[in-house]
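To illustrate this point, what follows is a protein record of this kind.

___
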Amino acid sequence: MFKKILIANRSEIALRIIRACKELGIKTVAVYSEADQKSLHVKFADEAVCIGPAESRKSYLSIPAIIAAAEITNADAIHPGYGFLAENEDFVHICNECNITFIGPSAEAIANMGNKSVAKETMRLAGVPVVPGSVGIVKDLNHAIEICEEIGYPVMIKAVAGGGGKGMRVCNNREELEKLYEMTSNEAEKSFNNPDLYIERLIIGSRHIEIQIFGDRFGNVAHLNERECSTQRRHQKLIEEAPSPFVDDDLRRRMGEAAILGAKAVQYVGPGTIEFLVDNDKNFYFMEMNTRIQVEHPVTEESMNLDLIKEQLNVCSGGKLTFVNKPFEMHAIECRINAEDPFNDFRPSPGKIESLHFPGGHGVRVDSHVYSSYVIPPYYDSLLAKVITFAPTRLEAIQKMRRALDEMVIEGIKTTIPFHQKMMENKDFIAGNIDTKYLERNDWQLS
């Protein structure tokens, strides 16, 4: 097992990793930007190193600064968390060259799954169902027109290096394709430094369901069932839960087997997520693979009584998986509380937290890095906290979430708490009748 781990991240995920390390007796090193000097991950780590100014590219995305911090503190491993450098194959190569263990999959797995076109072809060859669409990169607009005429409209144009909902456009006909193709390519080049696109047929009324997988260095791969992630806005997840109210035992088995095939195809090590689109007839199609721990990993932890970070540290230090495929023990729901104004198109709301109270009690977990008087910097993601409730049944988990959200107080800024309160009362959510476009079709304030 590792002796000292540098955490190349910030906020709640950095704290989450610190907690797991402390319980395992592993020393930790926090890195922080000048804007995060008073952050809790700096306070609770054994050591802390400032790596640059507030701007991410000069701090949390600065590979030389992070490697230097690891070397001067004699860290033998780096945990990237999620975001920032977590899926950067160049960072993995540099860690290897410096004899520092990267706590994650190989650079090759990250590279293959990070390019959406390569990932899709890899999954297709592995026998995983994929959405009908282009084989490889789309050459130009004329090539795009040919593909769309073959697979039929509507289609989704996607950046091969995309993520976070950027570099994606829906086209319902040829006219829209001709209008949006160059626009999407330009956005992809600006956002990801890669203008290449691929095209998929749009699956109408689809659900976003992902399978948590785990692999070790001995070739063992297991899955930890599904998470339902269909409650989202502009491709950004807002609520996740496990198990999915839509998935039956047969679909769970088929999706789990497909996810394992996909993970084995890239010799995957550590926690990862195979994300699928699932239609109303329970046909499922590979969408993408996230080669890191997920924001929503607590949903799986609480529904299956496992510590995924500890298991990640185990397999990435050379240990074998400590479990095989497990059944659910509880139903878990997670609400992402963001510093955004849900009454004003979810506009970001940075500023100072004047008053704060987190909910507690049986079956309630809060993962957060904020505290009363904490000033939310405008430079990073707006996530403030993840509220997770878990209970023997879905209805009980929803009831606990209602109670937890009513107890939660964050004053001084706008937050998405009112949105989640409305959703916990929403009749379609309670019935489990939510797809990825639900919030676009409906006023989220309706109960």
About this structure: Residues 132-201 form a domain with the Dna Ligase; domain 1 fold (CATH 3.30.1490.20). The mean pLDDT is 95. Residues 174-192 form the longest helix (19 residues).
